[in-house]
């Protein structure tokens, strides 16, 4: 392991002035320390942010829910507001990693986690994301786990988060604090598509700290579901996942939100599929049409063609369950 300086931030302002591009914040450490040990990340300074006052979840007057950057994945999944108004987020969090990891992992750390592409995690392999200009061994390598949406010639690595898929469907805003002050970024614009700069993964500037993530007000009356399809039933990343939310207007769909995980280079909101659902009967034929639209631009690689079918099935099943829940909510409020 390479030597690095270690310090503890004693205030948000202090943390937000760690401007060295090679400095990294430590939250739960469950991604960062792995990658440092693998020699994939090489920070010269680690700044522990665990004592900062960023552990609150609070309902705002406008109905949105503000989540502190250091709220753990466990605490968020079991928070009463989340279980009551954003069950899709609770389900997504509980589908991720293991109990022990969720106890350590934080909300901001989850947003910032890196791809699990084995070529990214192996410094001996060519990877434009880790070492710009070195190539992409995944394109012609073993790419069963890789992206069918949002990839480029330079990178086809999947964004691995479950939590982020639910947040993409719900809609959210990140609050960032840096040496130049505070700013907000829409969740959907935070993660970047790889294009020809896959090493630029997100819209966080040097020294900036994520201080909070604020969820949009919940859809009402609505139903939602997170479905994760994977090689084994627990402690495994998604091959395909879907976060779905629907509100009903009688038998018809009022609003729809659909996002995919496990198949794309960033948490993947399916805006065209959502638009096609609005005003349609909440039935399988509508869900299947939406799934076809969502995967219309899929570009499978040699070993991951099955993900196109799997993602479509995830969409149909997640929407079916979301519609069932929305129907129950509608009946209860009639
Ligand atoms: C074995 C294993 C299995 C897993 N399975 C899953 C899974 O199935 N689904 C899933 O979604 N995830 C999974 N994960 C990933 C896990 O969710 C992440 O490791 C975790 O969420 C990262 O959070 P952390 O607080 O530990 O981040 P850290 O490791 O502390 O930090 C990660 C990155 O975020 C940066 N960072 C942290 N906080 C901030 C902040 N406030 N502002 C700016 N930058 C910040 C750090 O500098 C670092 O670059 C798995 C991880 C492991 C090790």
Description:
This protein is of the alpha+beta class and 334 residues long. Among the domains are: 5-48; 222-333, 2-Layer Sandwich (Enolase-like, domain 1). The protein contains twelve helices and twelve strands. It has helices at residues 12-15, 32-37, 73-77, 80-85, 87-94, 99-104, 107-111, 163-170, 187-190, 271-277, 284-294, 306-333, and strands at residues 5-8, 23-26, 45-48, 57-59, 65-68, 172-178, 181-186, 209-215, 222-229, 240-249, 252-261, 268-269. The strands form three sheets. It has a five-stranded antiparallel sheet. The chain has a four-stranded antiparallel sheet with strand order 9-10-11-12. Strands 1-3-2 form a three-stranded parallel sheet, with no helix packed on it. A hairpin with a 2-residue loop joins strand 10 (240-249) and strand 11. Helix 5 (87-94) runs antiparallel to helix 8 (163-170), helix 10 runs antiparallel to helix 11 and helix 11 (284-294) packs across helix 12 (306-333). The radius of gyration is 20 Å and the shape is globular. The N and C termini lie far apart (62 Å).
Question: How would you summarize what this structure contains?
Answer:
The protein is 29% helix and 21% strand.
CATH architecture of the domain at 222-333: 2-Layer Sandwich
Major β-sheet, in short? 5 strands, antiparallel
DSSP strand count: 12
CATH superfamily of the domain at 222-333: CO dehydrogenase flavoprotein, C-terminal domain
The first-level CATH class name of the domain at 222-333: Alpha Beta
The proportion of residues in beta strands is 15-25%
- In N-to-C order, the SSE pattern is EHEHEEEHHHHHHEEHEEEEEHHH
Q: How many helices does DSSP assign?
A: 12
Strand ordering within the main sheet: 4-5-8-6-7
Q: What share of the residues lie within helices?
A: 25-40%
Shape: globular
- Roughly how many Å apart are the termini? 62 Å
Radius of gyration: 20 Å
- Distinct ligands, ions and cofactors found in the model: flavin-adenine dinucleotide
């Amino acid at each position: 392991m390479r030597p690095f300086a270690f310090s503890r931030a004693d205030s948000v302002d202090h943390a937000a002035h760690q401007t060295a591009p090679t400095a990294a914040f430590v939250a739960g450490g469950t991604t960062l320390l792995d990658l440092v040990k693998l020699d994939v990340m090489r920070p010269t300074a680690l700044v522990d942010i665990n004592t900062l006052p960023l552990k609150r979840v609070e309902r705002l007057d406008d109905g949105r829910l503000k989540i502190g950057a250091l709220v753990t994945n466990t605490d968020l999944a079991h928070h009463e507001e989340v279980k009551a108004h954003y069950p899709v987020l609770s389900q997504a969090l509980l589908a991720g990693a293991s109990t022990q990891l969720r106890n350590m992992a934080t909300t901001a750390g989850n947003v910032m986690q890196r791809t699990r592409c084995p070529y990214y995690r192996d410094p001996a392999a060519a990877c434009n994301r880790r070492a710009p200009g070195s190539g992409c061994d995944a394109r012609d390598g073993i790419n069963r786990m890789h992206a069918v949406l949002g990839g480029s010639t330079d990178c086809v690595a999947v964004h691995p988060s479950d939590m982020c898929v639910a947040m993409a469907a719900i809609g959210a805003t990140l609050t960032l604090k840096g040496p130049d002050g505070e700013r907000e970024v829409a969740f959907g614009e935070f993660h970047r598509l790889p294009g020809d700069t896959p090493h630029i993964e997100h819209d966080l500037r040097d020294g900036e700290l994520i201080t909070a993530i604020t969820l949009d007000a919940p859809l009402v009356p609505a139903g939602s579901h997170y479905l994760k399809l994977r090689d084994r039933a627990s402690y495994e990343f998604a091959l395909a996942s879907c976060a779905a939310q629907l509100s009903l207007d009688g038998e018809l769909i009022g609003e729809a939100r659909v996002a995919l995980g496990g198949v794309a280079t960033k948490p993947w909101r399916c805006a065209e599929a959502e638009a096609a659902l609005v005003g349609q009967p909440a039935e399988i034929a509508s869900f299947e049409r939406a799934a076809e639209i969502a995967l219309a631009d899929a570009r499978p690689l040699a070993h991951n063609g099955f993900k196109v079918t799997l993602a479509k099935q995830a969409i149909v099943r997640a929407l079916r369950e979301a519609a069932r829940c929305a129907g129950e909510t509608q009946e209860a409020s009639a």
